[in-house]
Model the fold of this input.
Amino acid sequence: MSNTSIKSWIETVKPVALWILILVIVLQSVWPLFCNFVLYPTGILQSFSRLTGYIIHQTFMVNIISFLCAGFLLCYIGGLRSKDFALFSKKIFPAVWFTIFAWAIIQLSPLAFGYELVVNTTWSDEGVLANKLSRFFTGQIFGNALYEELFFRAMLISQLAILFRKKCSNSKSIIFAIICSQIIFSLMHIPHRIVNGIPVDQMAGNLTALFIAGLLFVTLFSLSNNIFVVVGVHALANASPNIFEHCDNQFGIFGIIVIFLLIFTVKWVLRKYSTMRS
Done:
């Protein structure tokens, strides 16, 4: 997939049986309900995380179960392969460097808003370092961000596109797949938003923001041809381990993604221009 488009990659993806796709979507809908309203309130996962010195984040444990259930249905029964999730080993190291570069920009972002680089004093508090790092690495890079990108951006888009391709053209099928998958992505967050106290009258706006964020992640995936890049940016947007003050409230998810969309857009334009000249 190094030199191919997302559209070309989807053409190589193995289709999964419709009943498996429906079942895994249903399970993905039910699991957040159970986690947010039953599992998390018990405090069991938080206690286990504390026993590990906060090395293992509770989000990681929840997503491991999601990986096992979805993996059993999609890979063991459905026969999907790693490449059907856009997982290519050659993409890992470029994505690592990209994520480090993105994190560095976030750390410097206060300067753009007139702030000095002042180290956040909370880093010296007991347990904060372990908590922040575990939230980023085990909670997001190997947990929530990884699972959501593989499920909602790689698997769901490709499988829905294959399904819609039976009724419409390739381009339209991908567009419909992107829209449907990101609607599902935003709706899956309703239990989390309820638990976090989002008022009903603000829910529509919050879900719309999630839908737009999903579209931006899709665009980043399309421009980079690297699902690991999207995982890194997603993880930073959710839980960047920021060293300095004013990083969180001055440089949010949309700022991160827009900058890198511009980078990849320039890269894409230059590549097209080079192709036209050759």
Observations:
- The chain has one domain: 6-277.
- The chain has 13 helices and no strands.
